[in-house]
Amino acid sequence: MLDYEESREVGELRLQLRNLVRGHFPASFLGAFTSDPADLELTESFCRTLGEQRLLTLAWPPEFGGAGATVWQQTALREEMWAAHEPRGAQYMGLNWVGPVLMRHGTPDQKRRHLPPIAEGNVIWCQGFSEPDAGSDLPALATRAVRDGAGWRVHGQKIWTSYAQMAQWCFLLARTGPVKDRQSAITVFLLRMDQPEITVRPIESMLGRHHLNEVFLDNAWVPDDDVLGEVDRGWVIVQDVLLHERIGIARYARCDRLLSLAPAMLGPAWEELPAALRQRWAAALVHTRQVRMLAYHVVDSQERNELSGVDAAAYRIAVTHLDQEVAEVLADIVDGWSIGTSDLSRVFERAVEDHWRYAQASTVASGTTEMQRRAVWKGLDTE
Amino acid sequence: MKAQLSAEAVEFGRNVQAAIRELGGIDAVRKADERPAARATEVERVLKSLGMWDLRPLNDQVELEAAAAACRGAGWHALAYPLAERLAAPPEAEALMVVGPGRSVAPHADLPLRWAAVDPRGNRLTVLRTGPLLLTNLGPFVAEVEVEPRAETLPRDTALVLNLQIWWLTGLLERCVAMTRQHMTERHQFGRSLAVNQGLQFMVTEAVVAVRGVVELAKHTSWSISRVDRERHWLVDATGLRLAGLEAAETVLRIAHQIHGAIGFCHEHDLSWLSRLSQSVRRLPLSKSQTEELLLEMMTEVGYDGIFPLEAD
Q: Are B4 and A300 in contact (CB < 8 Å)?
């Protein structure tokens, strides 16, 4: 039977998180990756605060120091954090999937070394997947790892690597067999980033600082202890990572927040907007709820081990398109302010500008819309 | 939270779909088009045998979900019968029609039922006269009506009928998608199956995303209507759903027609019937633009609940 009533625990968690964010960040906060280094520092101290209250690892199982939260508490956490411009900064990646994947595939030693720093918010990970010639076609990756004594030497190039400049560790895919073997000759390496054999080149972009980098690996060293899973069997782990990203970022939550704020933020000017624009705003709110319900269907199905690949991919398509639709509606609502201002008191307008820039990448990042469409089409045959 | 219809409701919906298939499915619509006056007899008998008229959707959530699943199953065959309108009837009537501010017509209003009427805001109307059918290409089962205002409101019943109409439309759209996939497998052009053309595959996925989004929103709306404490949300939720349903219909039928090509316009093909019968829900009681206008008014009056509060004026 249908039930969309939020439990008291989830409601309390939302309130607790909103109060923490409100107490820790100025209203003008737009995420860790701005031109102001103070923003990054604020996210780091916020993570420590969350860590102290065991909120950082809310979703982790108790045996790894987590709170064993329900899937709906985890959903609320994802929503609240994204709506507040991800105040955990780059930590979300370690918490959301690097940690959980290590729990399932790591050796006892790897878990002992890597999980506590993630849980405490003391380490930043980056994801070394994409390469210049291996984007959507990830099994075409050419970065090569060659055995060298008690470890491996890695040579190649990664690209679009978020947070690579600040990361201490990289979850890296490298080829340990011939390119023609595609996914059957790929291994996952846990790579230390502080080596002279690694060069990171930031790529300036419309998304903001730290989002895009190139990483050049010139015989970088990985000891055997930091090979995750079996050699040549890394693709199994990649599939697990992708499963974890099926829900991904709760983009609809920021859409919900910004759309809901719009009338109050505009004040009397709201009524002066063209009726057609306010109707687009109303429709966007409906679409936001629609996508939220798609997300809840995916969460609910996953919880019951009944998740269809079609539903997961359909949700991903819908949420990314929503992000861009809402970006356009909001940009119209704030008119000329949508191209940016340094006036920090223009909190809403700056949030809209930030949202628009970031939304442009949503149909490309973490699996393009086209890859999701392929998944929908293929999945229809097996439903 | 639970985002699944109850198992009993899903089973009931399957039984309804199967029973209507036994009646001829879309061929039954063709027959109804030839002899519209006789279209209700067999349908009513079959639906009665399934226990349809015992459902009290506003008394029990499982029964509301069963009504939703039944309408979805009926929509799969474009059933030419006012199932949503009958299931949403207030106690003293047999069916509830929604009459918009424009042309005074309603689907199936020619059938000799005790009709109650409302406008899309839930204001009650007195039915002065019903019938005859328009018998147009796009509205073969739409009839003229004459109504006048009455000082009474039926917000929950109105939300229910709007919700169930969209469930019916959802079933119809799901059929369009399935039919289009089948056509792509069977039809060969340039020496290969249409199904291997990625451009066409991607068009179908657009339709799939559109329909699944409406299904999930329809579930939420049904739940909302089942909750007595959500009185202020019933109509805005149903109106928002109506808009989403109309948008999905536009997407799905545009794609289904494009991929089918000329055959899809022909009455010998089922798509023509699905497309034309969808019109009565898509254009009545409000056009898409009128729905958008009403939605904005309602959101301004009562808000729209999400993760973050949208306060009403």
A: yes
The pLDDT value given to residue A380: 94
**CATH fold of B156-302:** Butyryl-CoA Dehydrogenase, subunit A; domain 3 (1.20.140)
User: CB contact, 8 Å: A275 with chain B?
Assistant: yes
Over 70: is that where the pLDDT of B312 sits? no
CATH superfamily of domain region A247-380: Butyryl-CoA Dehydrogenase, subunit A, domain 3 (1.20.140.10)
Beta-carbon separation of B292 and A1 below 8 A: no
Type of residue numbered B76 = W
Work out the minimum CA distance from B203 to partner chain A, whole angstroms.
9
If phi over 0 gives left and psi between -120 and 50 gives alpha, with beta otherwise, what is residue B16? Answer: alpha
Taking an 8 Å cut-off on Cβ atoms, the answer to whether B3 and A2 are in contact is: yes
Residue B163 pairs in a beta bridge with: none
Q: Which of A79, A278, A300 sits opposite B2 (nearest CB)?
A: A300
Q: Are B106 and B284 in contact (CB under 8 A)?
A: yes
**CA closest to A80 among chain B residues:** B307
Nearest to B306 among A256, A278, A370 (CB): A256
Q: Model-level pTM?
A: 0.96
Residues of chain B in contact with residue A374, where contact means CB-CB under 8 angstroms, are: 201
pLDDT for the residue numbered A122: 85
Chain A: closest CA distance from residue B231 (Å):
15
Q: Which of B102, B111, B74 lies closest to B277, judged by CA?
A: B74
Short-list B86, B137, B146, B77, CA closest to B111: B86
Q: Does A300 touch chain B (CB under 8 A)?
A: yes
Could you tell me the fold of the domain covering A1-89? Answer: Butyryl-Coa Dehydrogenase, subunit A; domain 1 (1.10.540)
Angle between helices A71-83 and A275-303 (to 10 degrees): 150
Average pLDDT on B121-131 reads: 96
Residue type, A263: P
Is the Cβ pair A1, B65 closer than 8 Å?
A: yes
DSSP, res A361: T
CB atoms < 10 A from the CB of B68, how many? 34
Contact B269, B187 (CB under 8 A): no
pLDDT at B311: 64
Per-residue pLDDT at B272 exceeds 90 = yes
Cβ <8 Å between B1 and A300? yes
Q: How confident is the model at residue A382 (pLDDT cuts 50, 70, 90)?
A: confident
Q: Do residue A377 and residue B243 have CB atoms under 8 angstroms apart?
A: no
What are the pLDDT digits (tens) for A336-348?
999 999 999 999 9
Closest-CA distance, B132 to chain A, in angstroms, reads: 36
Do the beta carbons of residue A313 and residue A372 sit within 8 Å? yes
Question: ipTM strictly over 0.90?
Answer: yes
Secondary structure E strands in B4-114: 95-98, 105-107
Nearest residue, CB atoms, A1 vs list B2, B212, B240: B2
What is the percent of chain A with per-residue pLDDT over 70, rounded to a whole number? Answer: 99
**A67-112 per-position pLDDT tens digit:** 888 889 989 999 999 999 999 988 878 888 899 999 999 999 999 9
How many other C-beta atoms are found inside a 10 Å radius of the C-beta of residue A25? Answer: 18
CB B81 within 8 A of CB B108: yes
With CB atoms and an 8 Å threshold, state whether B306 touches A373.
no
User: Is A317 within 8 Å of chain B by CB?
Assistant: yes
Round to whole Å and give the CA distance between B165 and B28.
Answer: 20
Q: What is the pLDDT of residue A62?
A: 84
Nearest one of A234, A243, A197, A190 to A218, comparing CA atoms: A197
Contact residues for B154 (Cβ-Cβ < 8 A; gap 6+): B90, B96, B116, B118, B122, B124
CATH annotation of A126-240:
2.40.110.10
Q: Where are the domains of chain B?
A: 156-302
Domain locations in chain A? 1-89, 126-240, 247-380
